[in-house]
Automatic annotation (TrEMBL):
This is Acyltransferase. It comes from the Bacteria. Residues 20-336 form the Acyltransferase domain. One of its GO terms (molecular function) is acyltransferase activity. It comes from Labrys neptuniae.
Length: 357
């Protein structure tokens, strides 16, 4: 079973794969858990959920191919970039506004000076997902996205999207396979990174490997045979994913790369073939809806919850704060999607169509 959702810039609605939506939602929740564990000094919580980033990239390669390859000859690179920015930026801008308001409020509460020039610079750069390598600690440095640390993946995502779109008229299956293999070879040396200034460059082969594997999977989608065992296979792979994500110690590099090269792609390929209905379909649809807002907003929401908690109670407490952040972030994500993101994108899409009319 599939659900329909309007892609900005597309002329018609295209179906989503519900189990892939469910995977995306589960992965976003796990990313929030690992960050909460890290920020609240409980590092074993969802210890390896950073691998969810590679699943996001693989999903993106598959789903974007499905959504946009039909427009390969009618949409130029500028229009494609506009469509992708329209999809990705409204929620990142909202997250930046929440983070910036927290820094200003914290400065007023603590009667400490706020580096407004640095804050404005960070806002301007992060609005367009550009890295800031000189951010001071007062606003979240040395993270190069100091106002929303997870935003580094948006930069990587946009880079892979544009490279893929520029290659759309080539023999995409072979070119994407070659790029994915080359990136995997680089990752054997560098490991998975991209989230810190020291590992920034290794983020590009990381996104390249998973994204272009997703593109290859889409190109090969019709070659998988009909088989009743796909459903069981999917749930076995999903169970393996949960074990890897929640393994209490960091996984060795060989396991990480096995996830990137084999397990994550298998989940995407099989999940795209398996149907679901009833309550599971509703859950997957909701999980897909909340996934991107949750990914964007959990950091600034954590900042506010943690700041308020510490101002009232002193030392931070994972077992109290984590449930609060999770509930607030999920509710806020749903509200942001329906009351902010969808209306904003609809309005901007309408304006763009009228401008081209």
């Amino acid at each position: 079973m599939q659900r329909h959702s309007m892609f900005p810039g597309n002329q018609a609605a295209k179906p989503h794969f519900l189990l892939l939506d469910g995977l995306r939602g589960f992965a976003a929740f796990c990313v929030m858990l690992i960050h909460l564990g890290s920020w609240l000094a409980v590092p074993w919580v969802a210890r390896n959920s950073y691998l969810a980033v590679d699943l996001f990239f693989c999903l993106s390669g598959y789903v974007l191919s499905y959504a946009y390859m039909g427009q390969a000859r009618t949409m130029d690179s500028f229009e494609f970039l506009r469509v992708r920015l329209l999809r990705l930026l409204p929620l990142t801008v909202l997250a930046l506004a929440i983070s910036a308001s927290y820094l200003v409020a914290r400065g007023a509460f603590e009667r400490a000076p706020v580096p407004y020039a640095e804050l404005l610079n960070a806002l301007m750069l992060s609005t367009f997902s550009l890295p800031n390598f000189s951010a001071p600690a007062e606003i979240g440095g040395p993270s190069f996205f100091p106002l929303n640390a997870p935003q580094y993946t948006i930069l990587l995502e946009l880079t892979a999207n544009l490279v893929w779109w520029r290659l759309r008229h080539t023999n995409l299956e072979k070119v994407a396979a070659a790029l994915a293999l080359a990136c995997l070879c680089i990752l054997m040396v560098t490991g998975l990174g991209g989230d810190t200034p020291n590992t920034f460059l290794s983020g590009f082969p990381r996104v390249g490997a998973s994204f272009f594997i997703g593109v290859v999977l889409y190109q090969m989608r019709d070659r998988l045979p009909a088989w009743r065992g796909w459903t069981v296979t999917f749930w076995l792979l999903a169970g393996a994913m949960a074990v890897l994500f929640f393994w209490p110690t960091e996984l060795p590099r060989v396991v990480q790369l096995t996830w990137v090269a084999l397990l994550s792609p298998a989940l995407v390929a099989v999940g795209a073939r398996v149907q679901c209905s009833g309550g599971l379909a509703s859950f997957c649809s909701a999980a897909g809806t909340v996934s991107y807002p949750l990914y964007c907003l959990h950091f600034p929401i954590f900042c506010w919850v943690n700041g308020l908690y510490r101002s009232f109670f002193g030392a931070q407490n994972f077992y109290v704060e984590a449930p609060i952040v999770a509930v607030v972030a999920i509710i806020a994500s749903l509200l942001a999607h329906y009351c902010y993101d969808v209306p904003i994108r609809r309005y901007l899409s309408t304006r763009a169509r009228r401008a081209h009319a």
